[in-house]
Amino acid sequence: MTALVLVLPDGSERSAEMGSTALDVALEIGPGLAKAAIGAELNGEPLDLRTPLSEGGKFKLFTSRDEGAGPFIRHSAEHVLADAVQRLWPDTKIDAGRQDHSEKYQYDFRFERAFSPEDLQQIQVKMKQILKEKSVFERIEISREEAIALFKERGEDLKVERLGDIPEGETITLYKHGEFLDLCRGPHVQRADQIGAFKLLESSGVFFRGDESNERLQRIYGTAFASKDLLKEYEELQELARQRDHRRIGPELDLFSFSEHAPGSPFFHPKGTLVYNQLVDFVREKISSGYGEVVTPQILDEELWHRSGHWENYRDAMYFTEVDDRRYAVKPMNCPTHCLIFGTRLRSYRDLPIRYADFGRLHRWERSGVISGLTRVRTFCQDDGHIFCTEEQIGDEVIGVVRSILEIYQTFDFQDVQIELSTRPEKRIGSDEMWDRAEAALRDALTALDIDYDTNEGDGAFYGPKIDFQVRDALGRSWQLGTVQLDYQMPERFDLSYVGADGDTHRPVMLHRAMLGSLERFFGILIEHLGGAFPLWLAPVQVAVLPVADRFVEYAEQVKAQLPGVRVEIDGRSEKLGYKIREAQLQKVPLMLIIGANEVEGGTISVRSRSGGDLGAWSVEDFAQQVSTLSQERSLGLELEPAS
Description:
Elements: E1 3-7, E2 13-17, H1 22-29, H2 31-36, E3 37-42, E4 45-47, E5 57-63, H3 70-88, E6 93-97, E7 105-110, H4 117-132, E8 138-142, H5 144-153, H6 157-163, E9 172-177, E10 180-183, E11 197-207, E12 216-225, H7 228-244, H8 246-252, E13 256-257, E14 267-268, H9 270-287, E15 292-293, E16 299-301, H10 302-308, H11 310-314, E17 319-323, E18 326-330, H12 335-342, E19 347-348, E20 354-358, E21 361-363, E22 379-389, H13 394-411, E23 416-422, H14 432-448, E24 454-456, E25 466-472, E26 478-487, H15 489-493, E27 498-499, E28 505-506, E29 509-518, H16 519-530, E30 543-547, H17 553-561, E31 568-570, H18 577-586, E32 591-595, H19 597-602, E33 604-609, E34 614-619, H20 620-632
Parallel strand pairs: 1-5, 15-20, 19-27, 23-24, 30-31, 30-32
Antiparallel strand pairs: 1-2, 3-4, 3-5, 6-7, 7-12, 8-9, 9-10, 11-12, 13-14, 16-18, 17-18, 20-22, 21-22, 22-29, 23-25, 25-26, 26-29, 27-28, 32-33, 33-34
Helix pairs in contact: 3-4, 5-6, 8-16, 13-14
């Protein structure tokens, strides 16, 4: 038997025979560990304890105490959910569960009606009974023919169709606990009682495969953890997330809205547009010295997208139209248009690098089931840029972009930034030699910056590897924002060239870069990160002037006139001061100016911050100066310092 070498987290090594399992390894280490183990990881990939080992590498076992235990537990709770539904309603047919179990689980059912809250409660009771049975999860390998026959016999036609999604030659597995059996890749825990605590969250109607032309199914969402304490922590975090949900805060602050007349397409109101434009202006300022901003068409001939490679790799996410018997595509990205601009004239090595920035609108089709507020839309703007450079300039250009991106995130108080190098995907264009060079160039740039990064194997763009930036928000959630992508392919496809110092023509290299990414998505993430409380420089209304009574409105107008360049609103309503203050706080206005008899008599203003702090009496001149300074510095705080 071939021996495999497994490297444990502490650096020690263990040998395992080819075909043995992670559970066999756990048993060799100790029977206690084998009993407590719920899953494993091999070379960064989750592994079922019962899957035969076919390679060596970095190996880790998980028990319920480990942070990585959650996905194993939730995936297993998913099967318990489906089991409970079929026990309660035996004629129910099941479709598929969730691929990502990092936070939730779900199952889709062919069910005659929508699930009610009472149904969910009944299902939870049944799930608790199933957990008490302590059934063992069994992994079963089966041939395609046997699987088709099995599910046909059980009347599970949805499963028969799902079998068609599994590539030829790939191992087909079933998982069984008790009498419940389902098509599944795993991984799962050993026993049902290792699911410490669970909760069903909600139900909704969905379409089979997410396609509105298919039948409507019913979906149930849930979550599960190793203990009740972890579930409680999750529920508390979800409540904080609900309070910060940009889909709620945005309309409350009159920033944006949505309409059934344009699904997945936000309408930005004046206040939201002001913030949106501030974000664009901020990026423009960052790139002003090195980029030329361009404006490119929204609709381009379909042939362009064949040429760029997007047709083969992206057409399912594109919109199309026809004009004068010619087929056109609505632009999903800017890169081909920038190639066309570069190719309009003969370029010299002295011209390079050439950097284009583009804030044009893009359109990508997203299924209705995945559209979500501003974070998943069908029309958006990227802070998009493309750099055409020589091979020798790649390092400096990548380093410059990475530094700019990290500086931008500091401005928005994103402190925890994780960088990932995403390498060649299975579906790609270009030779392996080109991919080798491109991946090496990005690695060298990150090494030169002395930046820690993870390698995300197989997640590069179809045309080149990339550096992605993952940030954690105030609630600890991770979001992918900026990216730098190295592309040898598109200059080749568009036959781009420049004249080198040797007088010969050479092919430029193309860097794709976005810093905030989609402006819409970043806007939504920022709202939730800040809870809607924008810093002074970004707030749509920076100062609310609150007259104590109607007779002080005239002085309030005089104060406003002395604050040029400051976004000021006067609340001249005949309401009590406490009501006005609460309204300004609800609207997240950073600063409030109280105007009463003392202020009018002394020619001053009384300043309050939105956190409720009384900052005392100020001269209008001193206040205007400090507001201007904080805005120019793009400060995150409201640290005003009264003049002595």
